[in-house]
């Protein structure tokens, strides 16, 4: 989002929240129409938005620790490392790309734009939360993990129930929002290129080594599940753009990286087992959803 449009948004919100008299007089000002038009432009770009409170962040952080302990207990070391990688990647993209470079990320706390430190802390939690759980979700699906149904039930179940529990913490005073216009075009290109390369490889190979529909289902469902959970629980507000945001984000954002995730999975599994032991028996390698001809 351009800085000018961000200023329009904050200016308009503050006038509504803090000065009703100004709003009443504002209708008499010829500049009112211009500002309203700019506000509609801004709202068309500010997708997605989340409204939450501190309790939600605290509870979710505790859940992440529990999930981490359970994965380590079952010796899912590759899964843990891939999840940590996802958290770091999301932080680089969200804080570095969306906030610092494109200025498309806004964090508002108690009605005021958060400073750099608070913005970083909120985005650090968001990145580690959704980055870690998303990539754990992807890895256990790619691996066709023995306990796949339990991992997915745990993660998806938490996404659905956490917002309800967080209402015990009072009003949602933290708002996060970002535009999508600034980068969804590039994401669309990345999606097409990544799957096009994979399709070309599959067409060249005599026997397909992966079901591309399965890969799509994993990539789409991981983001759809938490986007849907946010929407039905009111964390993400319901408006005329909600369904579009749900569908576009689900089909594009995480899914664009699935061919690369598949490549990483193959490269790692060809060298190490899930518990990070070096592979010695090449004949009994476990590549999950990847089917290699012998």
**How do the SSEs run, as a string of H and E?**
HHHEHHEEHHEHHHH
Please count the beta strands (DSSP E, at least 2 residues each).
Answer: 4
Poorly predicted regions are 21-46
Q: How many separate domains make up the residues? A: 1
Oligomer: single chain
List the main descriptive attributes of the protein structure presented here.
294 residues, alpha+beta, four-stranded antiparallel beta sheet, globular
Task: Tell me about this structure.
- There is one protein chain.
- By secondary structure, this protein is of the alpha+beta class.
- It is 66% helix and 7% strand.
- The protein has a four-stranded antiparallel β-sheet with strand order 1-4-2-3.
- Helix 6 (116-142) packs across helix 9 (212-232) and helix 9 packs antiparallel against helix 10 (242-252).
- The model is unreliable at 21-46 (pLDDT under 50).
């Amino acid at each position: 989002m351009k800085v000018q449009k961000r200023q329009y948004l904050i200016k308009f919100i503050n006038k509504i929240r803090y000065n009703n008299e100004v709003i009443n007089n504002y209708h008499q000002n010829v500049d009112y129409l211009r500002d309203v038009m700019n506000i509609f432009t801004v709202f068309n770009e500010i997708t997605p938005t989340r409204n939450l409170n501190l309790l939600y962040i605290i509870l979710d952080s505790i859940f992440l620790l529990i999930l981490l302990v359970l994965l380590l207990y079952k010796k899912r070391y590759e899964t843990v490392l891939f999840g940590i990688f996802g958290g770091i990647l999301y932080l680089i993209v969200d804080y570095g790309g969306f906030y610092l470079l494109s200025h498309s990320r806004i964090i508002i706390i108690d009605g005021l734009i958060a400073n750099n430190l608070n913005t970083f802390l909120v985005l650090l939690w968001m990145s580690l939360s959704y980055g870690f759980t998303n990539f754990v979700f992807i890895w256990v699906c790619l691996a066709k993990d023995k306990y796949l149904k339990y991992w997915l039930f745990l993660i998806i179940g938490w996404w659905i129930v956490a917002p309800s529990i967080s209402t015990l913490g009072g009003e949602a005073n933290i708002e996060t929002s970002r535009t999508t216009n600034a980068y969804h075009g590039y994401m669309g290109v990345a999606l097409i290129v990544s799957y096009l390369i994979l399709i070309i490889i599959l067409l060249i190979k005599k026997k397909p080594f992966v079901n591309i529909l399965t890969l799509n289902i994993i990539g789409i469902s991981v983001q759809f599940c938490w986007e849907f959970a946010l929407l039905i629980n009111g964390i993400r507000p319901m408006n005329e753009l909600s369904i579009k945001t749900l569908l576009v984000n689900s089909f594009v954002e995480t899914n664009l990286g699935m061919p690369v995730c598949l490549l990483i999975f193959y490269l790692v599994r060809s060298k190490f087992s899930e518990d990070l032991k070096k592979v010695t028996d090449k004949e009994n390698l476990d590549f999950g959803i990847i089917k290699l001809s012998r």
